[in-house]
Each structure stands twice: as structure tokens, then as C-alpha cells.
Amino acid sequence: MTETSQPRAVGRPLARLEGADKVTGRAPYAYEHPFDDPLYLHPVLSTFARGRVTGVDASGAEALEGVRAVLTSANAERLADTEDREFAVLQSEEVAFHGQFVAAVVADTPEVARQAAGLVRVDSERSPHDVVLTGDHEGLYRPGSEDGPASDTEQGDVGAALERAEVLVDHTYRTPTEHNNPMEPHTTVALWEEGAQRLTLYDSTQGVHVVRASVATVFGLELDQVRVVAPHVGGGFGSKGEAHAHDVLAAMAARALPGRPVKFALTRQQMFCLVGYRTPTIQRVRLGADRNGRLGVLVHDSVEQTSTVKEFSEQSAMCSRWMYAAPHRRTTHRTAALDVPVNFWMRAPGEAPGMYALEAAMDELAQACGLDPVELRVRNEPGTDPQSGNPWSDRQLVRCLREGAERFGWYGRDPAPRSRREGNWMVGTGVAAASYPHLFNPGSVARVRYGDDGRYEVGIGAVDIGTGAWTALTQIAADALGCSAEGVRLRIGDTDLPTASVAGGSSGTSSWGTAIVTAARAFRAEHGDSPAPGASSQASAAQDTVDEGYAVYSFGAHFAEVRVHADTGEIRVPRMFGMFSVGRVVNPRMVRSQFLGGMVMGMSMALHEESFRDPRHGHVANGDFAEYHIPTNADVGDLRVDWLEGEDPRATPMGSRGVGEIGIVGTAAAVANAVHHATGVRVRDLPVTPDKVLG
Amino acid sequence: MEATITLYVDGGRHDLTVDTRTTLLDALRDRLGVTSPKKGCDHGQCGACTVLLEGRRVVSCLALAVAHDGARVTTAAGLAEEGRLHPVARAFVDHDGFQCGYCTPGQVCSAVGMLEEVAADWPSHVTEGLDAPVRLSDEEIRERMSGNLCRCGAYVNIVAAIREAAR
Q: Does an H or E element contain A435, and which?
């Protein structure tokens, strides 16, 4: 256990250091670095969900002036390692999902590339496909690997406890397929230098070193033959947390056309097949309690899908392992591998859908027991972590609930559903808890160098996907070095800098910040307080900063007011309030934005987002922003957040925990619970839309 | 088919030859290297490509370059004068009206164009009456800025920024 550093820069609401570059549009994203004489790639996607390509006729495309190459499985290079089958691009004729790459055109202009892609004729032999997840799907199996978290857990005697429960809530909650949809489409610009045998990728990614490792493996290159650059990234929300097939395709095209950068930006529509999404979930939650609302048993069974290409398990029932006290408990996950694109991380994978189900069920239990939903949660507060028995490092759920309730104006509400009406609007309020585990990724390295100009250059291959890493890491470095924020020149977003872990799992600031603090201490130990220009130290973060004897989680509470129109079922959210506990806040301005943004996405999950997979063809039928709805400015009302002051030295040397995901966790339940309070209608399948409320 | 056109972008004159299928957005980004306007959807659904075309906000992905020969285009980069941020852009920084920044140049251009529309008393869906002077309430800002999506969910801060810049 190390002491937290004395904060001077940390805790200050500095504006984003790259702010001026972003508001003018000068900050370069992947597509926008200056390139000489670039080529443009446009892919051809499969239009069926399962089968094989029997022939590709590229003659029409090749006849167009300006077409430089048409890549197919017949002429594409054989990759060195395709153990990760998502990366096995154009390696066989087999098609495993609708939207898989089956060819690609590279041309001098984007218009010609796109036109030529439309001229590529693909013949196929199609097989019956299976793209619909059901709760009793015959292919369901227990997912996971030996080294991952257990898919199933069981404590006590669940069967007996369910039988003797005085109050039993037993419902199934469904969440749909959801797509991350960062505003910047996934983009890779790839350049292969034949002489140097060197591949450079300008990539829209959450982890430059992560992408480098995958791409080097796939092409059989050494790590130092691959450079990945990402100074600014237009959002990711998990979908840019790993390389995807487009990185491989762009690199493949670049290697086929050495010396010219190949620019490949996915279209918004292509993003619905190729860069991950959140699996639909079917979650049965059983809560058995006494009449006073004390839980005796909690069972959370989640059914999810994955692709036949590779497994990704969402782990939605995990949250039920630590949220509430109950002597008897079971959580299970079952997965079916379908003929669908590869699913992957989407903001708070597991917790976001899981806490919707659990917190909606808790609302139903409160109603069944005649208890205030805040009080029900307080009564089931566990003194120690129910799964490990370890003490909590800093569990502040009850304070978040109570202070949040005061601030929101929760108390004094008539608990009866459909009890408040203003004109044609039915008005209700809802609450839900939030939680997210503190994650730390080992392996990050930072370098500190004292420059000729008297500033400290701090380098680490971290990525700012909008989280504020440029600014937050500068603040952490300033305190660790005992200088002002202006005395630090941060460099991130490049594999030429020391290794950094992914910007994912709300772990970035914790993992990178720890590496920076470690490197700063090494620098002072080696070079003292008056270093010579050019003095430099490099150090890696400890394997894990988290105190093993403790359960380290963040907590929060969401409150929502909704108005539902009695005639049309239109649902509005005039007010939301979120109260959080995340340890020490590194930059209040940007942490506030993270919470606000997470809550907007959670409200969106509650009311807007659903990808409709057409069972006939296996594609998402509403794959663009006209039909896949996310909130507009007019959908967001009086949204406020606050947090408890604190620090958690058991989590990181900065005393901070992650903040990127907790804002989306539980929000959907708070909104759906408020809709029930307003209308008396309990919608158990997201999104809550007017037809379901009126139906 | 190609055509030669002239565009005046952020005060500079550009003569260029474009494929007649080239959008104004692609002409700016791919031909002129003006990457301030962003491509988020290419279908006019997200607003990231918003620029001021002859002073009015448009989504440049839905405009064909060849149809705007001789036009004056202002991007978020061109709103800055003598190295000083435009007041709307400044307010976006001060109020943290963005996170990833990808929708931001479009938001800024849209806000600048929108404030001109309000000054000209153009009504919106939420304006009471068609002839009354428009008062810039938060509700008006939200409504008028709803053509610009922000997946980071910075809307609360965007409204605050525009409210301040409009003072």
C-alpha cells in the first residue's frame, strides 16, 4: 500500500488541453493525418448469413479507371496466424454472418472505389442460418474459459430458500441487440513500406498497443515492424477496444499496394456488422424475501448470444454477486453461438444489461413488500462482499441513495402507480442503484524525460477516446513530479511510446496514472529534484495496485422523472439526477461529463436503442442513425450529477477509481421504474416504447 | 465525369476538379485536406459535417460539390479569427460541451448558424406563434440543435455553452 500523492493539480477542473483543437476541428482523427497520394478502400460484404462464396467476378470493377486492386479470398495473402477467427479476413470461402468481408476494392478515389465495389459480382451457395436467440435455444451452453470469471456461482440452498420465501418476485427481463455507434466511424489508414518492411496504421482505436499486438500476430511481423498512431479518437464505448477485421483488411490492402497509404473508413451502415455490439439478453431474476423486504435468496440467470466465429460472453449476472446481501444465491450464464457478427464490449458490458434486470426486479420487490425502493435497497446492504467475504474498500451505496434522494426530491412521493397526472401527462419517478468494479490493467509503462525547455515530457501509449486522458494524465503527472500542469508535456496515442493498456473497463486513468506515478517516483529517485536536461526514467506500474484483501467497487444511485402521454404513450424524461462514489475525482469538469454522458446513454438504452436483426436475412434492418435511435439534444432535459468527496488509496496511488462506465449502469432501470410508477405498466423488455406502454 | 469548380473555404480560394458524384464534404476532406467538418454518417442524419454555406448551416454530406461552384464555405476552423476562438467555440471549451470532439466542429457551426436564425426570428417547432420575436430559451436551443447528434452525451453542456455565447 502506497500513500496517495498530495494533490495539487489533481482535483482541479482544468479545461481539456486539446479543447481548442477539437472545437475548431483541427485535432486529427485517424482519417485526417496528411497523406501523400492515398488510395481508398471500399469493401464488399456478404448479403447472406451462412454459406460459402462460390465465385467472385471482379471484371466489371477492374475495368474501371482508377481501380488498383480487387482483393478476394482467391488472391489475398495467406495470414500467418488466424487463431482469432475474427481476423481471418478473406482466408476462405466460408461465410459465417451477414456483412462479412468477401472482397474489397482499392482505387484512386473514394467514388471509384465505391462504384467498383458495387460492380463486384459474388456467387454463393447459401445454407440455412440461425440468428434468433430464444430462452430455450437448443444450442445454449455454459460459456467461458478456465482463467476467466466463473460463469456460474452458487451459495447456500437456493431451492429451499425459494420455497420458503414470503415474497417472491420471478420475472424475465429482455434487452435487445445494441450497437455502440461512436460518432467517428471505425477507420484505419494503413501504409506498408516494402523496403523497411514496416507497417504503419493510423487507427481509430482504444488501444494502440492492443491493435499492434493483434496485427503483428496476424501478419507474422515483429512488434517493432508495426506502428499504430491514434492521437485523437472519436469515441469508442468499447467497440474500438480491440482490432477488428477492418484493421486486417486495410493492412492487407496496404501490403498488396506498398508505398501508398490505404484509407479505409467504415460507413455507418457497415458498423452494424463489423465492429461489435451488445448481445441481446434474456434474464430471469428471482428475488425471495421476507415481508420486511430482506432478501433470503437471489437468482439471476442470463441467456445471451455469441457468434460462431468466436466467443464473447457478456456476463450480465455478475452484478448480482455483489450488490445485495442474501444467504442463498445463484448466478448463471448460458450462451448460444449464432450465425451473427461477432459481439463485443459495449459500455459496461455485463453490468449495463444486468443491472437493468436486477434493479427493475428490486423495484418490483419494493412494490410487492409495500416498501420505498430506496429503503428496500438500504435493508439489503451487505456488510462485506457477498462473494468473497472481504470488507469493502469504500462502499457508499447507501449514502448515494440517501443523498441522491434528498437532492432529487424523491421523498414524499405517492408510491401508488398512476397516481400523478398533469394534464394529459402521467408523471412518475424511479430509482435504481449503480455499481461498477474497479479494474486495473497491468503492464502499462511510462517514461519521464526532463526537456531542454524545463518541462517534463511524459510519454505513455495511452489513448484519449473522449475521456479526458490528455488532461487527467497531465494532472496526475504534475502532482507526481511536484510541478505545475503547465510544466508537463504529455505524449500519448502512439506505439512509439511506452506500452499502455486499453482504454476500457473504466481502467485507463487507474492503469496509466499508476504507471506515470511510478515513473515519476523513479525519475526523482534517479535524478533528484534538479535534473539535468535530457535526464530520463522509465518504469512500469506494479502488477496490481488493488489491495487484495478488499472488495473495490464504485457505487451510485440514479433518480429519474418521466412523463408519459396518456393518449400517445410518448415518453419524456424531464429530470434525472445521479449521485456517485468513485474515490478521488481527478478532474471534476471531465468526470461530470463522463457521468452525464453515461446517463444519457443509459436513458437511451431505456427508451431508444434496439437493433432489429431480420430473421430472414440475418442483418440489422435499422442500421443507420435514421432508424437506430440515440438521444438528440431535445431528448435530454434537466440532467444533473454529483458525487461524494473521497479517496480510495486501496484502489490506486491517486486514490481514484474508474468513472467511464458507472454512469450507464442502472440508468435504464431508473427510467423504466419511473415509467411503471407513472403508468402502472411494467415493461420488461427494453426499449420502453410508446406501443408497449399503451398496449 | 469530372467538373472544375471554385470553392472559397475559410477565406481561401480553391480551384479544383471533382468527380460529379463528390459531395461537398468529400471535396473538403479528400480533395482540399480541410478536415474540420467530420463524416459521421454520410446520410445527413448526424450533423457532424455541418458547415456554413453562404452563412447558413448545411450538412455538407448531402450537398454535391459541383452544385456549389463559387460558394463560400465556413468551417469551424474558419470561425476562429486571428488565432482567437469564436465565442461559441470558446464557450464549448469552457463548458466542456464535448468529449471525443468528433461531432464538435459540426455542433459549433450549427450553433453559429442557429443563433443567426434566432436573431432573424425564424420560428422552430417549440416557438409559440409564427410571428412573435424568438426568445432563446433552453428549450429552443435543444430543439434547434437536435440535428447534431453527440454520442458522448454532452448535450447539457452544449446547451450551457450556447446559452452563454448568446448573451
A: strand A425-437
> Which residues have C-beta within 8 Å of that of residue A419, sequence separation ≥ 6?
none
Interchain contact, B158 vs A18, CB within 8 Å: no
C-alpha cell at B84: 482567437
Chain B residue nearest residue A271, CA to CA: B41
- The pLDDT tens digits of the residues spanning B60-90 come to 999 999 999 999 999 999 999 888 999 999 9
Question: Is residue A561 annotated as part of the catalytic site, yes or no?
Answer: no
The per-residue b/e assignment along B26-57, b for 16 or more CB within 10 angstroms, e otherwise, is bbbbbbbebbbbbbbbbebbbbbbbbbbeeeb
Sequence-ordered strand ranges (E) for A115-181: 121-126, 153-155, 167-175
Final residue belonging to a domain, choices A540, A568, A585:
A540
Residue type present at position A635: D
Q: What percent of chain A has pLDDT over 70?
A: 99
Instruction: Please give the class, per CATH, of domain B2-79.
Output: alpha beta
Boundary residue ending a domain (A267, A301, A316): A267
On whether both A519 and A610 belong to a single domain, the answer is no
Mean pLDDT, rounded, for A476-481: 97
Out of A110, A598, A639, name the one closest to residue B26 (CB). Answer: A110
The C-alpha cell at A76 is: 489475398
Give yes or no: residues A322 and A362 share one domain: yes
Helix, strand or coil, per DSSP, at residue A429: strand
3-state SS, residue B124: coil
- Output the pTM of the full model: 0.97
Domain B87-166 fold is DNA polymerase; domain 1 (1.10.150)
Q: What angle do CA B159, B87, B54 make, to 5 degrees?
A: 95
| Domain region containing A458 | 19-28+440-540
| Amino acid at residue number A357 | A
Cβ separation A597–B154 shorter than 8 A:
yes
Please report, as a single letter, which amino acid is at residue B51. V
- The 3 state secondary structure assigned to B34-73 is CCCCCCCCCCCCCCCCEEEECCEEEEHHHCEHHHHCCCEE
Same domain, A471 and A484: yes
Q: Domain extents for chain B?
A: 2-79, 87-166
A19, A110, A633 member nearest B30 (Cβ): A110
Query: Are the C-beta atoms of A359 and A669 separated by less than 8 Å?
Result: yes
